[in-house]
Amino acid sequence: MAGIFDLSGAVGLVTGASGGLGGRLAKVLAENGARVAATARTPEKLAGLLGEIGASGGTAAGFRLDVTDRASIAAAFDAAEAKFGAVTLLVNNAGVAHSDAAETMAADDWRDVLSVDLDGPFFLMQEFARRLIAAKTPGAIVNVASLLGLKADKGVAAYAAAKAGLIQLTRVLALEWAKHGIRVNAIAPGWFPTAINRNYLASEAGEALKKRIPLRRFGEEHDLDGALLLLASKAGAYMTGATIVVDGGLEV
Questions:
Q1: pLDDT of residue 57
Q2: Can you give the pLDDT at residue 251?
Q3: 20 to 30 Å CA-CA from 103: which of 28, 59, 67, 138?
Q4: Is 90 a member of any domain?
Q5: 238 is annotated as an active-site residue
């Protein structure tokens, strides 16, 4: 059982790797043997992450990828393949959020969130699957969704709709691609401090929210490690179409 989470031989592409959670996900894959293509719209921001992975004995390289640009998606896969070989593991982590009352939300704000949080992951999964199907090679996808894709809250219509859509896409594509040996699963994190929400979680409203969480704390970066490794490795070989909630018990 010691090697059940071993990812040796896998090539993982992680989107949004310049952010805190994305960087952690990339490091966890590398620590467990995967060669990692860390991607971001500004690849220069990946330098610190790549240095950490290299210093720990892992293998990673940085690539530019704008999830809203299909040409950029294809180019990133091409570059990762040229460096490491076929990408066999995709982690859709890149995301944005917008908070506003539904009746005042601008059309551009709605479109921006859906473009990054739903359209982008779909086209990434499509590119990933097309290549693996052509090569008759199995693979795994891990989508980073959100608890807000499963429960309603006020002021986050675009984000919640996008994440709910991503969870449903996870189910649908799991069904479509199972015959090709491509597993599609998702993680739905609860409240984790990130650049998107850090100020809110540090406010009085955030403190009140923390008291509603049974474990009485917000998530920390390492709290997603287990779910990621389960879904990415042979430990989860019989799992597809699943969404694992990691929320401290908030929705129990």
A1: 97
A2: 81
A3: 67
A4: yes
A5: no
Active-site residue, selected from the candidate residues 5, 84, 159, 177: 159
Read off the CATH number of the domain in which 140 is found: 3.40.50.720
Please list the rounded mean pLDDT of every run of 10 residues in the chain (252 residues). 88 95 97 98 97 98 98 98 98 93 96 98 98 98 97 94 98 98 98 87 92 95 97 98 97 76
pLDDT of residue 2: 56
Q: How many domains does the chain have?
A: 1
Residues 6+ apart with CB under 8 A from 80: 11, 13, 37, 61, 63, 87
Structure-token match 């929705």, residue found: 251
For residue 115, the 8-state DSSP code is: I
Q: Which residue has the tokens 């593991």?
A: 89
Tokens 């917008």 -> residue: 98
According to DSSP, residue 144 is labeled E
**Is 205 inside any structural domain?**
yes
C-beta separation of 112 from 61 below 8 A: no
pLDDT at site 199:
87
